[in-house]
């Protein structure tokens, strides 16, 4: 399923079951020029599905507790800020072999604020899709979760429609995120 098809399904579900969350997605999305500029700042290419997703929305608002089941989709400015922080840590600790720009953090776990889901950068031509990988600070292993960000979005849309998530508040107009049903 394509990124646009996934967003249509996600938007339809949210408009019915959690309209306040639909409003927490940052609109408008980014222009191609803004994405090109961000790639130049980061010194890395985004995978195609990531670029396409950011043309629809620029992540989620800071008030969100995580549209993607406690995972908050980061706006592009926060990705750049994260990369800058990592670069400063590298300079401070003299880890010359570490290059934080090889990874692009897309989602942050709101319950810990330290676990991330990221994609690796695409090749020089920007055409390579890369997997969505989870990094847990308590278990620092490379845990591949999805084959691409497009796959992540389509799986999430399907799980919404199957009823696996619910708003984090009984009043759907006051919800700030989604949580898995138990």
Automatic annotation (TrEMBL):
GO cellular component terms listed in the entry, alphabetical order: mating projection tip
Domain Knr4/Smi1-like residues, every copy: 29-153
Highest taxon of source: Eukaryota
Pfam families: SMI1_KNR4
Classification via InterPro entries: Knr4/Smi1-like_dom, Knr4/Smi1-like_sf, KNR4/SMI1_regulator
Coiled coil: none
Protein name as catalogued: Knr4/Smi1-like domain-containing protein
Organism, as annotated: Adineta ricciae (Rotifer)
């Amino acid at each position: 399923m394509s990124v646009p098809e996934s967003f249509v399904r996600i938007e339809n579900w949210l408009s019915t079951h959690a309209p306040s969350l639909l409003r927490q997605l940052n609109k408008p999305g980014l222009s191609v020029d803004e994405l090109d500029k961000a790639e130049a700042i980061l010194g890395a290419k985004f995978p195609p599905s990531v670029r396409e997703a950011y043309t629809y929305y620029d992540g989620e608002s800071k008030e969100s507790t995580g549209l993607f089941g406690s995972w908050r989709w980061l706006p592009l400015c926060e990705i750049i800020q994260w990369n800058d922080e990592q670069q400063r840590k590298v300079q401070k600790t003299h880890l010359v072999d570490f290059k934080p720009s090889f990874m692009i953090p897309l989602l942050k776990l709101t319950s810990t604020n330290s676990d991330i889901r990221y994609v690796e950068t695409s090749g020089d031509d920007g055409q390579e899709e890369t997997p969505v990988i989870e990094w847990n600070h308590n278990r620092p292993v490379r845990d591949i979760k999805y084959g691409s960000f497009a796959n992540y979005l389509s799986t999430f849309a399907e799980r919404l429609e199957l009823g696996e998530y619910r708003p984090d508040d009984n009043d759907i107009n006051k919800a700030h995120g989604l949580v898995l049903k138990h």
